[in-house]
Amino acid sequence: MAKIEDGKTQDEDIIDDKPMPLLDHLMELRTRLMWSIGAFVIAFFICYHFSGNIYLFLAQPLADVFKDNGEVRKMIYTSLTEAFFTYMKVAVFGALFFAFPVIATQIWMFIAPGLYRSEKKAILPFLAATPILFVLGASVVYYFVIPVAWRFFVSFEIPASGNSLPIELQPKVGEYLDLVMKLILAFGVAFQLPVALSLMAKVGIVTSAGLRKFRRYAVVVMTVIAAVLAPPDPGSMIMLALPLMALYEISIIAAKFVEPKPVEE
20 forms bridges with which residues in the sheet? Predict the structure, then answer.
């Protein structure tokens, strides 16, 4: 009897599914899509109801910078529809965030029956780690990177003195939200590095030894990524580059555990 990974036989490592006609697969897909869409729509209306609170939460780092400077500022919008569509973007962003567990569960329930038991056990830890790492990345950018970046940008203001023309920041609600969402998504995706490299090691595309040899080049690549994703100030770039380097080291350790073991003769 043929052997497969982890010492299980092919008979033991089976697909927990039964043959289904194409129409039944399409019906199953429709059911999963309906659950996903329903979760998103419900989350959207809830988030839209609290969109003002969510926006205030996202704007709090900038408010804290102005407060530290002893100032009371306000944001502006220059188009009649800008504030409305900003709240819509906030609702969509929040709905995607809160509905993601349901959507991911529905995707898993659709594809899981077609996987072997060993494949399910191999993929599940990575699926569980994905939202955790995304939230970790979003927390890092919100609580550490954004406050530093905002202080850097506000420092370019020029107060009024004599006959000089002052330069004062008057942030627009739409532009501010787009920047914050871009940073949160960028950091959340960047923190998926251990998941991506571990999966690649699991299927044999990379090895822990190869990742160690590539370390010096990885440092350069991650520095470039940090320069592209982070705001253009040294503090923010360093605060993204350092976690990426740490995650790369974690990826090497994880790859060591999940990579296929050499077959003994």
Answer: none
As a 3-state breakdown, the chain gives helix, strand, coil percent values, each rounded to 5, of 75, 5, 25
Cα(193)–Cα(145) distance, integer angstroms: 19
Counted residue by residue, the chain has a size of 265
Task: Supply the pLDDT for residue 254.
Answer: 83
Q: Which of 206, 202, 160, 153 is nearest to 179 (CA)?
A: 153
**DSSP SS3 for 203:** coil
Distance in angstroms (rounded) separating the CA atoms of residues 39 and 229: 30
Measure the CA–CA gap between 255 and 259, rounded to whole angstroms: 6
Give the three-class secondary structure for 70: coil
Contact indicator for 50, 93 with CB cutoff of 8 Å: no
**Nearest Cα to Cα of residue 35 among 109, 92, 90:** 109
Q: What is the pLDDT of residues 119-144, one digit of tens each?
A: 677 777 777 888 888 888 899 889 98
Mean pLDDT of all residues in the chain? 82
**Pairwise CA distance, residues 106 & 34, whole Å:** 10
Q: What angle do CA 121, 134, 55 make, to 5 degrees?
A: 145
pTM for this model (two decimals): 0.77
